[in-house]
User: Fold this.
Amino acid sequence: MATTQVNPTRMELKKLKNRLTVARRGHKLLKDKRDELMKRFLEIVRETKTLRERVEKGMEDIHGNFRMAAAASSPKGMTEALMLPKQSVSLTVSSQNIMSVNVPVFRFDVTGSPSDCYNFGLAFTGGELDSAIGSLSDLLPDLLRLAELEKTSQLLAEEIERVRRRVNALEYIMIPQFEESIKSISMKLDENERGSLTRLMKVKDMMIKEQREVKGKTAPIQ
Assistant:
């Protein structure tokens, strides 16, 4: 692995060691975040799967009743029966934070009594249409919850992918580069230190030799 070109100085070595410490700490925090996000994501996916199966079964029954009602009534009669709703629904969208990810929260309010979902006279419509409208009204909370969960799982999946890329970048690129640079600088500094020590020893030997020669020349003749 190619190391980053840096000056082999003790100041640079200290700086790299500090950066390596920060990178390792960040790597651990990001791994913990990724694991917790995966845990929450899997919980939401399991809930979504159960809810989706229930919603799909309910929608299948509702569509079947609508088809039966449409077959037993004229298009004009169906339109007149459904054109003036008695209930109104207000939807409020807010957000909550899950591991630094803002996910949507849906809240809805229905005005009117439960029987107001039938905005037509029951005596003038078939039982299939009554059943379809009632089932659709009962299924509305599950539909909104399913939309909330699916958007949440999408946002969490995107965040998990971002965190995973950062973890891999730290684990396989940045941290090994820091370690290789630290090793290279340490080896260079050790080599320089050995070279300096060798030169000092040579200088010392030369000085000792010169002193001996001087003493030999100045020694009195017996």
